[in-house]
Fold this protein.
Amino acid sequence: MAALVYAGVWEFSVSKYLDGFSDSIVPNSAPAVQKVEAILKWMRVGANREVAADPEALDLRDPGNTLVYQQLLAVCGTATNAFLNLARSSDLRVRRLLLLGQDHRAKHVVAEVLIEGRWVIVDPAYRTLMRDKRGRLLTRSELRDPATFAEATQGIPNYPREYSYESIAHVRVARLPLEGLQLRRILEKVYPGWDESFDWSLLLERESAAALALAVFSTCIFIVLRFALGWYADRHLRVPRIHLREKALRVGAALFTSPEIK
């Protein structure tokens, strides 16, 4: 319970910080595309950023770091985290997308934004919304086509051609120790579409959200365990227990009711 309260306060403070940050960048009443463009513009030409003496010592899952330090905004993973945090605080539905190589390692990280019923691609590292020559926003399935991919990236200076969309994932389970058990294939059989049915990126990119989720899960487990042990003690061990609810009622009655005088 203490961990739950601590994690809740932590996540609340992070959310308030991000809300204030995004309010200074993104117009609240603007359409989704304009909100995305406002965030990307801030990433391109925003205020002067701090330069960390030792970037490797920074917590990469702390939104305060990813939004402030110049080195983190230049790396695809942390730049995407910064974009996702600001976009989510601006009431946009977003998620991160990993572009995988033949070795199943992430070669690049981009974001997907739900706009007019379509999950379109944003590349925060290059500060751009993927569009075709007509200005139409593109989805990951459309960018799998080499001609469409070339058309979308031809105007982006020095954009690597290997950042293609043949193999993608929202959660890279290959990093887990259970890789040899083909965990992804098992999860797809048990729960098809599991990696798109939940906003996993929130837990993966924000340490406070992960701590809150873990605290909620642990609290639920311990509450169930407590009632299970209580039921077993009552029914099978015949062990008299102190029932906190009954004690609380008796204390309340003693403090707030007048005794009967016969």
